[in-house]
């Protein structure tokens, strides 16, 4: 009798497990004859029910992964993990998805933060604030949203970079330069103090003003870029904190992008992967904007040297004094780049004193592009225009030759 009961319990367990778990084999292949590191593998979870936990294994060993709720409906939409591939290499991963449990935790390789100004707390270190938030929305007629957050907007980083996005009509990407490959923004909050500087922490390395900075998305009035105003409301929010990628969004509702056309709602999604100095920019609209024109580009850093391949990759290398008191109060040298799909380029504008600009067209409701930068302070990066521009050519080749991803479900 005990044996029969045990067999019945085992059968019930197997039926329950099969009903709540899905095993997937993922084969990834590098099409290039060059080594690839930290290549993202992203898999939609929507076909597999309401997945609550995931396990990713390579050769029987667990590797870090993360699940993201992209539309904030409390259901995980996408699984992400990173892969390293040798030249032309193929690897096979096993993924077990479960409708029970909770996401596994791993050491974070990215960071994101939003924090309100909190200047009256005297117990805090200089420049350190702790009124942490996850989202903020301001009405379009708010007087001065730039000062609502401690570092003027959401910030995020990988080991190689650090970016903040201003919470105002500019929505500019401002840059943090590092000496070492490490996460720093939790400690410095974009305002490095003297003790941290002595320890080798980085700091703000770019003056942006009203320019594009690094690839800000703007309107276009037929002659020049326009800021993202007027709007009915403006939101910043963090969608994912990591551990392998952080996702932040800017939402502009009722943006009068063209004075002769109806307002649009726009969502800008910034995705930062661990091990990457480049950042994905995804632009979504609530309606077809094929007959609108927009713009993006990079700041014309004072005295900068320009590079363009006339196919959507545009870059510069130059030096200037950032607004803040930076490391040793010196001029900061940076390399900047933006990579636009050719189908989205209406025109490449001549350089002026402010920007290297593109006029953009969107086919339908969305488009994606990439931004990239280096600071000459880096011990691990690039230290001349020649080095930077050569790297960008190889980077473009990688972007246009993504790894191949094939799925098969184990029955």
Distance between the termini: 32 Å
Please state the oligomeric state of the protein chains shown.
single chain
Largest sheet, if any? 9 strands, antiparallel
What is Rg? 23 Å
Number of helices: 4
Strand order of the largest sheet: 10-17-18-19-20-27-24-23-22
- General shape: globular
Instruction: Find the structural class using helix and strand composition.
Output: mainly beta
Quick structural overview:
This protein is 10% helix and 41% strand. The protein is mainly beta and 411 residues long.
Walkthrough of the structure:
It contains 4 helices and 28 strands. It is mainly beta and 411 residues long. The N terminus is likely disordered. The protein is globular. The relative contact order is 0.14. 10% of the residues lie in helices and 41% in strands. Strand 22 and strand 23 form a beta hairpin. It has a 9-stranded antiparallel beta sheet with strand order 10-17-18-19-20-27-24-23-22, with helices on one face. Strands 9-8-11-12-13-14 form a 6-stranded antiparallel beta sheet. A 5-stranded antiparallel beta sheet has the order 4-3-7-1-28.
């Amino acid at each position: 009798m005990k044996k029969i009961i045990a067999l019945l319990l085992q059968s019930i367990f197997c039926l329950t497990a099969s009903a709540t778990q899905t095993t997937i084999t993922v084969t990834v292949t590098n099409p290039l004859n060059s080594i690839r590191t930290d290549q993202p593998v992203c898999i939609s979870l929507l076909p597999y029910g309401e997945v609550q936990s995931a396990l990713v294994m390579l050769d029987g060993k667990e590797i870090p992964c993360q699940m993201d709720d992209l539309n904030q409906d409390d259901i995980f939409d996408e699984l992400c993990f990173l892969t390293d591939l040798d030249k032309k290499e193929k690897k096979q991963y096993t993924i077990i998805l479960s409708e029970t449990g909770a996401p596994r935790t791993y050491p974070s390789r990215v960071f994101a933060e939003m924090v309100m100004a909190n200047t009256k707390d005297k117990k805090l270190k200089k420049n350190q604030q702790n009124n942490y938030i996850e989202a903020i929305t301001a009405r379009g007629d708010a007087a001065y949203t730039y000062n609502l957050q401690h570092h003027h907007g959401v910030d995020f980083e990988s080991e190689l970079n650090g970016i903040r996005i201003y919470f105002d009509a500019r929505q500019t990407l401002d840059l943090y330069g590092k000496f070492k490959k490490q996460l720093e923004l939790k400690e410095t909050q974009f305002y490095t103090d003297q003790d941290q500087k002595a320890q080798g922490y980085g700091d703000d390395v770019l003056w942006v003003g009203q320019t594009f900075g690094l690839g800000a998305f703007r309107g276009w009035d037929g002659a020049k870029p326009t800021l993202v105003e007027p709007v009915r409301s403006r939101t910043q929010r963090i969608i994912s904190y990591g551990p392998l990628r952080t996702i932040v969004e800017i939402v502009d509702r009722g943006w009068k992008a063209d004075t002769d056309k109806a307002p649009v709602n726009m969502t800008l999604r910034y995705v930062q992967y661990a091990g990457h100095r480049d950042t994905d920019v995804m632009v979504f609209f609530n309606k077809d904007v094929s007959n609108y024109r927009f713009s993006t580009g990079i700041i014309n850093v004072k005295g900068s040297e320009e590079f363009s391949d006339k196919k959507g990759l545009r870059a510069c290398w130059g030096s200037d004094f950032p607004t803040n008191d930076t490391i040793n109060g010196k001029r900061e040298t940076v390399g900047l780049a933006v990579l636009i799909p050719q189908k989205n380029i209406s025109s490449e504008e001549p350089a002026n004193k402010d920007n290297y600009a593109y006029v953009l067209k969107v086919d339908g409701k969305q488009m994606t592009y990439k931004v990239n930068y280096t600071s000459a302070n880096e011990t691990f990066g690039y230290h001349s225009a020649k080095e930077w521009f050569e790297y960008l050519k190889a980077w473009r080749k990688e972007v246009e030759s993504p790894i191949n991803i094939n799925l098969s479900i184990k029955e």
